[in-house]
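Appendix B. One record, verbatim.
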Amino acid sequence: MIDQATWLSEENAYALAEKEDDCLFKGDGTSTYGGIQGVRSKLLGLAGAVDAASGHDTFAEIDASDLTTMMAALPQYAHANAKWYVSQTGYQLIFQALAQAVGGVTMLETGNVQLRSYSGYPIVISQKMPTSTGDLSDEVMLLFGDMSKAATLGDRRSITVKVDESRYLDYDQLAIQGTERFDIVVHDVGDAATVGCLVGLVGE
């Protein structure tokens, strides 16, 4: 027998978590994202939007100097819990490429599991960050900083599941709906003159 309750709860949780990540990283304040303005949109035009070197507008062109500039821009108080946030594409073309160029053992391995990190800071993979291998001019390509200090997720109502046995009666099927109510506020990314808890690298 298939454990349908577990399967459905996992599917609902995954779909809703994906929407939360959508809003956090890609939200532009429109109804598509429930009026939420995410970190990438919020950073543009602020002091925390760090320009890459001239001509560095693709992942493959980002180098160690660009990453060092990002780390230097982040205030000291945000370094204790800082992480990198990047897509799998960005991770392979930036961090893995830099590691391979150095040669030798460049990653800490524990129990045959490679821990993703760069310069001592963990790397978090999110496919809600840019995945294009092409021109990313004027876009926030990757993030660095303390997300827990920069943004807050409020859960007004946890996951609610409803079952309707009548809608698809002719097909001997059930309709199952999972919903939640949440909001995300990006509140500490600084302003036009001051860098906050998160910085983003903008393609040039």
